Each structure stands twice: as structure tokens, then as C-alpha cells.
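JOB MANIFEST
job_type = single_chain_structure
chain_count = 1
residues = 174
[input]
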Amino acid sequence: MIESAAQNQDGNPNSAAWVLVLGNGLRAAVSEIEMQHLLAAPKLFEIPGSPFHCRHVCIWNDKLLPVMNLNAWLMGCTEPQEKPLVGVVGYERCTGVSVDGAHALHTRVQLGGLLLRSMPTRVLVSEDQACELPDNDVDWREISISCFADEGNNAVPILDLSRIFSNALIPVIV
């Protein structure tokens, strides 16, 4: 997590996070600073020929945002949501820059949307809560950077937004 909010009983700093409900019992988290806005029932525009999990875009603050359906990507679900809820998230994209033989990293903030099933919940998380990714039929490794155990001792993966919004989740079509 990015931003320290308080300390827990052991004196370790807490970080604020948003727990997102993705559907089919799947939950994941992003840091408080990554969650920018919530859009209730936004107009989604379909991109023909795109994979189901990244088939839509929406407009927010005069910007066209890709909308990812992680429930579809993780579970293969293809049923559309009647009244979508989109969490607008911000993440840093690093790119390498070469100028006159010198290499440097350049970061810039990108925006995207995550399709949610219900309102996110704000929680405080400490390093003491770190745990392994959930041991179920869902492979979180490709889209998670870490994981924490919530109050019920359920594992909540922390999403790697820069990977999710890269081309990494788009299958190569030959």
C-alpha cells in the first residue's frame, strides 16, 4: 500500500485500501490513492472484436477510459451487468526513454476503469496482514502484486493496475 494512515496495535504503520467486489465471490484491493472516482451506471461503449474482459470504454472528465471486467477475465463470465458500477483508478506507467545513448525511466499517471459489482469498502491494512494469494481455482498471480488477510482471515489480492491495463491480459490472436 502507498499511503500511511495510522499505526496498528504493534506500532506498525497502516495503509488505507479499497476492497473491490468483482463478482462471483471475488474480491481484490487497490490502494486508497489509486481509487480516483466511482461512476454509477455510466454509459459504456462497446469496442467490436475486443476480448470480453476488455470490450468497453467509458468517458470520464473528457477522457476515454478502458474498462476492464476482471470477473470475466478470471472466471470466464460473459454475462453483462445491467447497471454497471465502474471504479476509476489511476496507476503509474513506466517507459524507458533513450536520448543520445542515455537511458532513463519516465513515469506518467494513466487512468482506467474496473467493472465492480457493488460499492468498494475502505479498510486499513498493515504489514502484519500480509499473506499468500488465495488458494482457489482463480490464478491471481498474473494481476496481483501482493495479498493481505482481512478481518475474517480471507485473502484479498492487491491488484497490479499497470499490468492489468497493459497488453498483458489480451490474448494474441494468430
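[summary]
Confidence is low (pLDDT under 50) at residues 1-5.
Residues 4-168 form one domain.
exit_status = 0
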